[in-house]
Backbone:
């Protein structure tokens, strides 16, 4: 889950190993972390000595402890104690409570996390299969280079300058180029200074003219998981998705959320009109889209890409 923690508190009820595990989970947030228990794990004592958590005696659990609390974790390791503390926290006004390994008592569930601060990927199974969540986490860990967070931080520092110099369309193109081109490759190779130089040099050049394009994408037999990877990428990059009536809604869910959708009786004509105005268009058609329509083959002034699908 992603919660706003600035100026708020995270409460952990329990003082043993489970409580320490939750403290490790939230220690990198900017929340005040309060751990309430009768006895405390050595790790929690060490965190308290460093000023990273505040330890309070469980006898001091009162309603004001939960004021401005983003979330309360109940983590004693005892089913009976967990149940009692859950009831106590809710009765004292705790708005969001998570009881470790007790999904039925949880207002929110904590996912497995891939942390490339400030990039965070959360994997949840709604408490049904935590082992599967960890397996997926391992797979995602191998996909993302260890220093990806530092590249995202660089992008964050440059966001204001990019916003001042480039239009909305040009900004999107610029960031696609940053995260899929030479900037990311240089950064992943350890040349962070070179990556920053490439990014800034490209920004100084300014955007080229906006040119419309059409990706003619075969949507396959109507199931989202049968769309090609290239087709999905083009849908994520598009300004406009054009399709005829009757396309499966789950396929459209793969598109960038702020891309426009247009249902057209003549999708080819609609796509051509939008592309000639500078839009990046995906024209989705049922089946394999084995051949380009003649109108697209003859559109010499436009960039047209053919992305066949499964027939």
Residues:
């Amino acid at each position: 889950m992603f919660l706003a923690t600035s100026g708020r508190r995270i409460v952990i009820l329990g003082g043993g190993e489970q409580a320490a595990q939750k403290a490790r989970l939230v220690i990198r947030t900017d929340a005040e972390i309060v751990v309430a228990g009768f006895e405390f794990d050595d790790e929690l004592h060490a965190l308290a000595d460093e000023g990273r958590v505040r330890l309070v005696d469980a006898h001091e659990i009162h309603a004001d402890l939960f004021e401005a609390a983003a979330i309360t974790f109940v983590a004693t390791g005892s089913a009976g104690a967990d149940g009692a503390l859950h009831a106590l926290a809710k009765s004292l006004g705790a708005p969001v409570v998570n009881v470790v390994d007790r999904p039925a008592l949880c207002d929110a569930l904590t996912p497995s996390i891939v942390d490339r601060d400030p990039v965070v990927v959360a994997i949840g199974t709604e408490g049904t299969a935590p082992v599967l969540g960890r397996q997926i986490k391992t797979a995602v860990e191998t996909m993302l280079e260890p220093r990806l967070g530092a590249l995202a931080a660089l992008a964050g520092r440059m966001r204001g300058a990019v916003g001042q110099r480039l239009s909305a369309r040009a900004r999107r193109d610029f960031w696609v180029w940053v995260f899929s081109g030479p900037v990311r490759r240089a950064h992943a190779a350890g040349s962070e200074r070179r990556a920053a130089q490439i990014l800034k040099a490209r920004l100084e050049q300014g955007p080229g003219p906006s040119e419309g394009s059409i990706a003619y994408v075969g949507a396959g037999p109507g199931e989202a998981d049968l769309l090609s990877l290239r087709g999905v990428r083009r849908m994520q990059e598009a300004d406009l998705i054009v399709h005829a009536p009757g396309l499966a809604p789950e396929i459209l869910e793969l598109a960038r959320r702020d891309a426009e959708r247009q249902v057209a009786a003549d999708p080819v004509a609609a796509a051509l009109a939008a592309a000639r105005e500078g839009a990046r268009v995906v024209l989705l058609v049922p089946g394999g889209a084995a051949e380009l329509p003649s109108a697209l083959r003859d559109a010499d002034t436009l960039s047209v890409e053919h992305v066949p699908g499964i027939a």
